[in-house]
Design goal:
The protein is α+β, with helices and mostly antiparallel strands. The protein has helices at about 40-55, 60-65, 120-130, 135-140, 165-180, 190-200, and strands at about 75-80, 85, 95, 100-105, 110-115, 205-210, 215, 225-230, 235-245, 250-255, 265-270, 275, 280-284. Helix 1 crosses helix 5 and helix 5 (about 165-180) runs antiparallel to helix 6. The chain is elongated and about 90 Å long. The relative contact order is 0.13.
């Protein structure tokens, strides 16, 4: 009977999980079953994967990355002028600011109302109607108008590739990847969680590869995921490298294997073509 490589409990139809090696929210496609249970999968998400997803901010929604499961959620983004907007996966952007202001004027009261959607707008109009019974909600809604965002008010986007955000996720990816490829855990579960914490705090022996992994040959794929694991036969050292969305490129020494044995696994996935292109790559 297959057992969870985390808690060692037997896996069955009730507790087995589909472990996304690269998170589903980032367009990951490798999601084997029979590796870890749902509880340990959640533990790995909390320890590493959630931070990796958050590192990309609103970009998965803006790119509308094709997910294996579910849809890209709306994202709340700030603009340079301080407004709050909601970005949808279809590319639409709407203001989220809620404004309800009452001023005393010579004629009585001036009520200013604005909202990012009509549902909230109606709620504010009804609120004003309770405060001022002479206000006709139907008439007020009829005179509501849509205001376009200012063309010079740019949305602010960010990426966070600090060790705390992405290096733990890289170790999680490499651990699951080798587990799926070989059926063997390269390190024990407790050691994995300890290693994730260490990588997030100090970066360990990983680094960013701005120009990609030296020695990796293959076609140029803009929006892609890559995972490479290769051993150094003379020392048994395992070199790991991951590339997410063609932007995040990190890797380095992450474990030791048997001396004299060549271990080499290459995975490359083209997100735009929705195709596995691993066989088009080699590494020296």
């Amino acid at each position: 009977m297959a057992r969870c490589h985390g808690c060692k409990k037997p896996l069955n139809t009730q507790n087995d999980s589909r472990a996304h090696i690269i998170p589903n929210a980032l367009g990951g496609r490798l999601a084997p079953k029979g590796l870890i249970c749902q509880t340990c999968n959640t533990r790995l998400d909390e320890a590493a994967d959630n931070a990796l997803v958050e590192a990309f901010g609103a970009w998965p929604t803006l790119l509308d990355l094709p997910r294996q499961r579910g849809q890209n959620p709306p994202k709340k983004i700030s603009t340079r002028k301080g407004s709050q907007v909601r970005c949808e996966a279809d590319g639409s952007i709407a203001r989220m600011d809620v404004h309800y202001n009452v001023q005393v004027v010579s004629e009585g009261h001036k009520v200013e109302i604005s909202a990012g959607d009509m549902k909230t707008m109606r709620e504010l109009i009804n609120r004003a109607a309770k405060q001022f019974p002479q206000l006709d909600p139907t008439l007020a809604e009829r005179y509501a108008r849509k205001v376009e965002m200012s063309l010079d008010d740019e949305i602010k986007l960010s990426l966070d590739f600090a060790p705390k955000a992405v290096f733990g996720g890289a170790i999680s990816i490499l651990w699951l990847f080798l587990l799926a490829k070989t059926g063997q855990a390269i390190m024990a579960w407790d050691r994995l969680l300890e290693c994730i914490t260490t990588m997030q705090s100090s970066g360990g022996k990983f680094r960013h590869f701005v120009d990609g992994l030296p020695g990796l040959s293959g076609p140029s794929i803009g929006l892609s995921h890559k995972i490479i694991v290769r051993s150094v036969p003379g020392t048994g050292e395992l070199i790991g490298y991951i590339e997410i969305l063609g932007v995040l490129k990190i890797g380095g020494l992450f474990a030791c294997g048997p001396i004299g044995v060549v271990i080499e696994h290459i995975y490359a996935y083209d997100l735009l073509r929705n195709a596995d292109r691993s066989n088009e790559f080699s590494i020296a």
